[in-house]
């Protein structure tokens, strides 16, 4: 009885090994490439966030200069030109013209600034999308590759068939226990007796337990719940 289950577990271990190897060969490089792509896009986004902070700061400066220029115009628009001498008038006109010119230049700079902001926003969106796409591709790849491996590998198929055949000869309650423990991450489920100890957690077994094991069969470890078998039968 124990030996069938042991044979079953050997196949299970072999299956696990093949799956692990295939996963390592197949998906890891692709997933790794996607991870690099995601990391790059995330770094780019951080850079864009810095750039947008700088753009905001420089825009505030431009606004400040514009405000000063407009205030100057406001203050001087009601100036009494009739009372000015010819030189004062020339000077005044020159200053107003200069301010007007500066304001118009400022407007151009604000327009090009605006273009930059639009560019940053567009780039930001592009990189966000890249990240989302890569994450989705990664997820798809993982699901797909697991399925592919299990369906298209003759070795795996063969082992699975053997296991299926063996299942018929294993006591259902033992098989159920095996499966549920494996599900819980306890694997291997069956462990040998090693120097009067559990081969899984190394706890020392009582002499009455050892006697039971000598008569064949398996014994559930009280500490780790693994099924202990004796090699000597
Ligand atoms: Zn144990």
Largest sheet: 4 strands, mixed
User: Which residues sit in consecutive blocks of at least 5 with pLDDT less than 50?
Assistant: none
How many E-type strands?
4
Task: Give the domain tally.
Answer: 2
Computed Rg: 39 Å
Distinct ligands, ions and cofactors found in the model: zinc ion
Instruction: Give the N-to-C terminal Cα separation.
Output: 12 Å
Comma- or semicolon-separated keywords:
Helix Hairpins; 233 residues; 2 domains; binds zinc ion; mainly alpha
Protein architecture, described:
There is one protein chain. By secondary structure, the chain is mostly helical. It has 2 domains: 2-161, Helix Hairpins (Orthogonal Bundle), CATH 1.10.287.1490; 172-229, no CATH class. 76% of the residues lie in helices and 6% in strands. It has 5 helices and 4 strands. The protein has helices at residues 2-76, 86-152, 154-167, 172-183, 207-214; strands at residues 190-194, 197-198, 218-220, 227-229. Strands 2-1-4-3 form a 4-stranded mixed sheet. The mean pLDDT is 88. Bound molecules: zinc ion (ZN). Residues 198, 200-201, 203, 221, 223-224, 226 line the site of zinc ion.
């Amino acid at each position: 009885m124990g030996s069938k289950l042991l044979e079953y577990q050997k196949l299970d271990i072999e299956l696990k090994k093949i799956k692990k190897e295939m996963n390592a060969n197949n998906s890891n490089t692709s997933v790794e490439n996607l991870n690099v792509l995601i990391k790059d896009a995330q770094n780019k986004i951080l850079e864009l966030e810095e750039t947008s902070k700088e753009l905001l700061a420089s825009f505030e400066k431009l606004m400040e200069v514009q405000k000063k220029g407009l205030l100057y115009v406001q203050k001087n628009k009601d100036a009494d030109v009739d009372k000015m001498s010819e030189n004062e008038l020339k000077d005044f006109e020159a200053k107003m013209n200069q301010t007007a010119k500066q304001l118009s230049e400022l407007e151009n700079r604000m327009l090009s600034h605006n273009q930059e902001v639009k560019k940053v926003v567009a780039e930001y969106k592009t990189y966000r999308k890249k990240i989302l796409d890569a994450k989705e591709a990664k997820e798809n790849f993982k699901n797909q590759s697991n399925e592919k491996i299990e369906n298209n590998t003759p070795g795996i198929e063969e082992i699975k068939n053997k296991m299926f055949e063996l299942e018929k000869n294993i006591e259902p309650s033992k098989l159920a226990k095996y499966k549920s423990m494996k599900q819980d991450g306890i694997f291997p489920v069956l462990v040998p007796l090693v120097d009067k100890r559990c081969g899984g957690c190394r706890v020392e077994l009582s002499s009455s337990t050892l006697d039971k094991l000598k008569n064949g069969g398996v014994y559930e470890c009280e500490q780790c719940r693994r099924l202990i078998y004796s090699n000597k039968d």
